[in-house]
From TrEMBL:
Belongs to the ATP-dependent AMP-binding enzyme family. PROSITE patterns: AMP_BINDING (PS00455). It holds the Pfam family AMP-binding. It comes from Campylorhamphus procurvoides. Keywords: Ligase, Lipid metabolism, Membrane, Transmembrane, Transmembrane helix. It catalyses: a very long-chain fatty acid + ATP + CoA = a very long-chain fatty acyl-CoA + AMP + diphosphate; tetracosanoate + ATP + CoA = tetracosanoyl-CoA + AMP + diphosphate. This is Long-chain-fatty-acid--CoA ligase. The keyword Lipid metabolism applies. It comes from the Eukaryota. One of its GO terms (cellular component) is plasma membrane. The gene is Slc27a3.
Amino acid sequence: ELFGAVEPLLPSLREDGVAVWVLGRGPYPAGVLALQELLDEASDELEPQDVWEPRDMNETCLYIFTSGTTGLPKAARVSHLKSVMCMNFYELVGASSSDVVYLALPLYHMAGALLGVVGCLGIGATCVLREKFSASVFWEECGAEGATVFQYTGELCRYLVNQPQRPGERQHGLSFQQRFGPLRIVETYGMSEGNVTLFNYTG
């Protein structure tokens, strides 16, 4: 669904030797690789470990986009080591495999993709993915999905507090301390390009 934003850039991307992969069947212009067809053809058998195991955990695993705090959003390098470390994120904040994590953050960003989805894989938790955050249906969906953990970034909580009060906002596994009921809140701060993360364990 985001391919339209990339399509005007294809000529310059080709000049720079950048490959464009799209998860979908297409059709797409020449030089764009539709991954769905390759996934359909791929074998279920695992390749030998030396094929997929990185030679150096500090090598680039993937690129994600920063939020643009220090300018326009830009690609940031994430190492294999940092990706693996993200698998421990939810364990650090006290979540477990019995939790259901409600995630409405963009998956092109580190908070959504690595801390969110990869974090769920790390503890074996259920991940409820929502395409876009909606304050008006948030509590209803959390109740319906049995959510026990909600990963947020700053403004999402403000959007929830600014909503008019409604009956179902306390009938779920999540809550906020005053208006929405008692809850353990653990906050972290880190930067995509940084090597230090801060945790507020005390609330």
